[in-house]
Write a structure and sequence with these properties.
With about 425 residues, this protein is α+β, with helices and mostly antiparallel strands. The chain is built from 13 helices and 10 strands. It has a 6-stranded antiparallel β-sheet with strand order 8-7-6-5-9-10. The chain has a two-stranded antiparallel sheet with strand order 1-4. Strands 2-3 form a two-stranded antiparallel ribbon. A hairpin with a 5-residue loop joins strand 2 and strand 3. Helix 4 crosses helix 13. The longest helix has 24 residues. It is globular and about 70 Å long. The relative contact order is 0.09.
Length: about 425
């Protein structure tokens, strides 16, 4: 029986991405469901574009942009991880953190037991195996929490799952995939040494915050001499709160030290930790939606004109490439019409998003880097000037004014 060709997989206006192969050409331009041009007619499909489509969760391409998206959103997005494995991860994380709290209180010279480490690695292997089977699944965190203890259990659980997915999507080596996931489980073990009275406070004074900040170093000392714990896991515990502008802890690294002394895997774990903290409710602090959190994190990326920033551009690109559509139900977090600032300092309005490279849309510049209004707006495609990128997104406040979202207690996350 003759194998069905790609043309047989075309339904009306669309073609399924999973049936495409490198070198395939179309007689018409093809678009994604957001009307973004993906491939011009007669242009061969490259392996790089095809891989990016798959990793970004794009299932269909469309020939007629006016019809793109007609079939989108009919099916509820599938979860990238089963409820059974989520529940198993939660129970394991809860038992892990309670075991460590008991050790801090009763056997301060101990470290994490061999059995707990082995079970943690086995659990992360299950997460990696299950999530790698899904090319278009989504991950939604639980946002309704029982209490602050539940917050810390679920926070570490979410970081572990997302770190495992990110490491897989970025094709890290198997050993590093495992270390990312296990590092996510272990990253906040130092909090087990902090009294629950302080952990449950809605407002921290400076003394409380000094104790909170000690959790990275305390957690590291707890595992420092444990030979069964990977170096990356130890560094995630110690350095996941370091930031590029010197405002992080425990060492307050400057930009050069942050780039050279904090491994890429650890910096990415720091982004995941931040995203998870922003999207989970805390006492006196409402949670952001995934879209809001990603927009907020763009405002935290390095740009030459900024004195305050947290993350490196390459790291944020990796985070968005690996997790952007998975954590935002397959949707973009910016759209045409958004007011943005480019890393050059210029102000513009997004004309068209680039689904594969969200920090590099097509933009109409309305103010130069000196904040002077352009006599004649200039349109630029940031994908052609890749080293220039969106570094601030402006949102309207309640008075209708455009502002950049900020959080005074950001470094207390």
């Amino acid at each position: 029986m003759k194998e069905a060709g790609t043309k047989d997989k075309i339904k009306d206006n669309r073609v399924e991405v999973r049936f495409l192969k490198p070198g395939h050409r179309f007689s018409m331009d093809v678009f994604d469901s957001e009307n973004n041009l993906i491939l011009q007619k007669h242009t061969p499909m490259s392996q790089a574009v095809l891989s990016h489509l798959i990793s970004s969760g794009i299932n269909y391409l469309y020939f007629d942009p006016s019809k793109a998206g007609e079939d989108a959103g009919i099916d509820e997005p599938k979860s990238i991880i089963s409820e059974e494995l989520k529940n198993e991860t939660y129970e394991h994380t809860k038992n892990l953190l309670e075991e460590i709290r008991y050790s801090f209180a009763n056997s301060p010279g101990d470290s994490i037991s061999r059995g707990t480490i082995d079970r943690s690695r086995a659990l992360v292997d299950k997460i990696i195996t299950e999530t790698e089977k899904s090319s278009d699944g989504v991950f939604e965190m639980v946002t309704r929490l029982k209490d602050m203890d539940d917050y810390y259990y679920r926070h570490s659980m979410n970081v572990a799952i997302m770190a495992s997915i990110l490491a897989s999507r970025l094709d890290f080596k198997p050993e590093i995939k495992s270390a990312m996931g296990v590092g996510g489980l272990f990253h906040d073990i130092g909090f087990s040494s902090v009294s629950k009275e302080i952990l449950h406070k809605a407002q921290l004074n400076d003394s409380d915050f000094d104790i909170i900040k000690s959790h990275t170093h305390v957690g590291y000392k707890f595992v420092e001499k444990n030979p069964r714990i990977h170096d990356i896991e130890k560094r995630i515990i110690l350095l996941h709160h370091e930031r590029g502008d010197g405002e992080g802890y425990p060492y307050g690294f400057d930009l050069d030290q942050y780039q050279n002394n904090v491994p890429r895997e650890v910096r990415l774990a720091g982004l995941i930790d931040t995203f998870t903290a922003l999207t989970m409710p805390r006492p006196g602090e409402a949670a952001m939606t995934p879209k809001q959190a990603m927009r907020f994190m763009v405002n935290m990326v390095y740009a030459p004109y900024k004195t305050k920033y947290s993350f490196l551009t390459a790291d944020l690109r990796d985070f968005l490439k690996a997790l952007g559509f998975i954590i935002n139900r397959g949707q973009l977090f910016m759209s045409a019409g958004d007011l943005v600032r480019i890393s050059t300092g210029e102000i513009g309005i997004i004309e068209e998003m680039n689904r594969l490279y969200p920090l590099n849309p097509r933009v109409r510049i309305i103010k130069n880097s000196k904040m002077e209004t352009m006599k004649r707006p200039v349109e630029i495609d940031l994908i052609k000037t890749y080293n220039e990128y969106i570094s601030n997104i402006y949102d309207r406040n309640t008075t209708g004014q455009y502002t950049v979202s900020r959080q005074d207690s950001l470094n207390r996350i």
